[in-house]
Design brief:
Elements lengths: L1 H21 L12 E7 L3 H5 L4 H12 L5 E7 L3 E9 L2 H8 L14 H10 L7 E7 L14 H20 L2 E7 L6 H11 L3 E3 L3 H15 L11 E4 L5 E7 L6 E3 L5 E2 L9 E4 L3 E7 L4 E6 L7 E5 L2 E6 L4 E3 L4 E9 L2 E2 L10 E7 L5 E6 L1 E3 L2 E6 L6 E11 L2 E12 L2 E6 L4 E6 L9 E7 L2 E4 L1 E4 L2 E5 L7 E13 L2 E12 L5 E2 L10 E4 L20 H37 L1 H32 L8
Parallel strand pairs: 1-2, 1-4, 4-5, 5-6, 16-24, 31-33
Antiparallel strand pairs: 2-3, 7-13, 8-12, 8-14, 9-10, 9-13, 11-12, 15-17, 17-18, 17-22, 19-20, 19-23, 21-22, 23-24, 25-26, 26-30, 27-28, 27-31, 29-30, 31-32, 32-34
Helix pairs in contact: 1-3, 6-7, 9-10
Amino acid sequence: MGREWNKVWHWLAGLAGSLIVSSHLMAAPIEATPEVRVIVDVSGSMRHNDPDQLAAEALELLVALMPSGARAGVWTFGERVANPLPLGPVNMEWRDRARALTPRLVDYQQYTDIESALYEAAVAEPVERQRHLLLFTDGKIDLPAWRGRKPNIDQASRAALLEEHGPWLAEEGVVVHAIAFSDEADLELVERLSQLTGGLSSKVADPEALLGAFLAIVDRIFPTDRAPITDQRFVIEPGLRGFTALLFRGEEAPELVAPDGSRYSAEAPPEGAEWRSESRYDLVHVPNPQPGQWRVEGAPGQDSRITVESPLSLQLAGVPDAFYLGFDVPVEAWLAREGEPVGTEALPAHLRLTAELHDESGSVQSAVVLRQQEERFVGRLPAPALGGTAQFVVRAEGQGFRRQRVQPVNVLPAVSARHDEANQQVLLSAEHPLLDRDNTRLHGQLQGAHLEAEAVAERRWSMALPELDTALSVPLILRAEVTLEGETRELILPRLLLFPSVATAIDQVDASPALDVVRFHEELAPVREPRATQRTPLPEPVERIVRRVQELPGAAQERWREWRPMLAKPLEDAARDPRQSWLLLAAGILAVGLVLLALWRIALRRRRGGVREEPHV
């Protein structure tokens, strides 16, 4: 395992080094660059849980990824907190000093004081710019016995982090990102700290997860414009200074095909380009690229990306670090040239902006087309339906122009619930910043009994529970009535399972904290279970036809994205001419008829080929 990790880290370190040499993936203006404070766990458990010095390699990778001119520092902690690399501008000298810290990361200490480490790193040299704390850890809070009775002191430190330091860090604008290197880590703690402060958290179980976690954090701290890759194609508009393609390899080595048909590879790169080829990725920087549609061959991996250097950039306003289940998200975007908004008359022809929320699998949860208000584009993204880590994507498309911004976000419940077994109550906390005791009423149903929650603080409630049999798992339905801007809505927490660890359950269901939203007095449509039927296998030629028909909507959508800017104007002209409108309508009806005829013939063949079932009693 150690040898395999060393191989993985070899190519990761090579990737990081090449990113710094090119310095094109991190194109944020230096004056707007946040400050990064890296906090590395050197407690004794790291010797067992991180034998390959994964944390040290992670530090080296992150140090290499940070853009020159940013400010950063490194802290270590175990029983004591140290600052071996104080805050300073990131340059070659700083990078050399950071890499020289590797031997100190194996100078293990016996205990783990996460609270002191986060606090000391956060308060060191306060600055105006935003601070990002990157916590690398593998263990739980474990304080020395001379500080008090255990486990009370450990529990008190954990509570202080969540109830005092976390909210204080959020108020100060300090963002905590956490990477956990072991299943023994207090994952609930690091996830909660990240959520409280608007950061990201991840458990690293394999090299792919590590790479994804780092790329997500880099995207959050140093956002850049990308040219979206659609069907292995991307569009480069005129006037770009250059683009950088980070292409993770598929089965074949990637190649780039320029708009004029010229083919480029690692052996034959474009003139003036830098092409670095490794076993798992290719990194290509192309200066002054040829405008038009480029193509990537070789089936690049999902994390592949094209970042662009251009005076024209896509800007977003007010995008929160966390989205909330049951609440729409306001979106505002515009194009800027050298930092100044582009006027309406100078915008690309047929410009269209969309906003989407993608879940961890890449599927679109919700989407909205932004409407234009002079040079700005605004809209409201429909409320997300699934909790967890997601990607917020804003895409701009026009004639010969495509650009997108990707921002990793946390999707959280508007109200969280926790069962306090010792005190026979359920504790509820408002996660959404606008919810409080004045506009939110919480109640629940438990085995037919109605329960009311009482406010115990501005944004916290408690719900007393009756005497329960602790040998039974019992579902509790929780609801919140929320009034905002004169509108009342009901947030439903599907089920909270009380005593979930016992074997016997009453109506046991998923206790996911995800909230759904419905309007008052809105009747929900009944859910009908699909009737179980046995599908008769189709002949292979028919199966191929069915698969092709099923693929038609996706392929048509991709082709429409490419041709829409060029077809929009002719279609608008046709819509104004009654004679052309009738021709378009007739063509549409004919196309639909042909598709329906093909589907009817397939269904007819399937019905004839099925096995007839004799009537019986």
